[in-house]
Amino acid sequence: MFQGEPVFLDLELYRPPTGTGRAGFFNKNTKIILAAIGVGAGRNVRIELYPEWRLGGEKAIIEKLLGRLGELSSVVEGRNKRLLVGYGILTTDLPIIAAKSRAYRLRGAESTLYRRFIVLDLFQYALSKYRGEGLPSMAWLAGQVLGAGNTKRSGHIVHELYENGSYREIEEYQYEELRLLARVYEALAREWWGPEG
Fold it and tell me: Residue 136's pLDDT is what?
């Protein structure tokens, strides 16, 4: 089915305040402040962070991220591909990385993101199960799949932490987020594909 361990991807974004709140959050002023990759599943996921405050800027984050994804995809040969998992990855993460890559004139982003992996967006799964108002959050999905007490803080906190220079707390939040994503995926994979999924 899939080759190698699953790869998890998540971005943290920031947009300078414009007085409009979160409406229109994704625009030309939105920037990637941290990219995270996890390899493996469940509690054994190995996490790598690429933060702006260590790498010096958004372009460096994207270059590092694309390079690492390229390495991870090249480990798998043959017709099967590696699985790239995220929450909102098809509607947010991948389109933003692709658009920013074009703006920085970084070649090969679309090929790396869309052709070298099979993409699984758990947000799409959550939409099929969610019956509430609005859109399902990762915390909601984690609660449904793993049970009560398996939720996380809202990602909205990252914006405030970034403005306050609380970079270590952003990194801790991201570690928590990717571990939770890996655990949710592992539980769903067992349900969908059995113990070896």
Answer: 87
Write the pLDDT tens digit of every residue in 176-186: 999 999 999 99
Q: Which two tokens stand for residue 169?
A: 């707390």
Gap between the Cα atoms of 184 and 151, Å rounded:
11
The answer to pTM > 0.85 is: yes
> In angstroms, rounded to a whole number, what is the distance separating the alpha carbons of residues 28 and 151?
31
Angle of the 122-129 helix axis to the 138-146 helix axis, nearest 10: 70
The answer to whether 170 and 12 have CB atoms below 8 angstroms apart is yes
Determine the number of helices (DSSP H) and then strands (DSSP E) in the chain.
8, 5
Asked, for residue 1, whether it belongs to a domain, the answer is no
Task: Count structural domains, the chain.
Answer: 1
Residues 130-147 pLDDT 10s: 887 788 888 889 988 998
- Kindly state whether residue 37 falls inside one of the protein's structural domains: yes
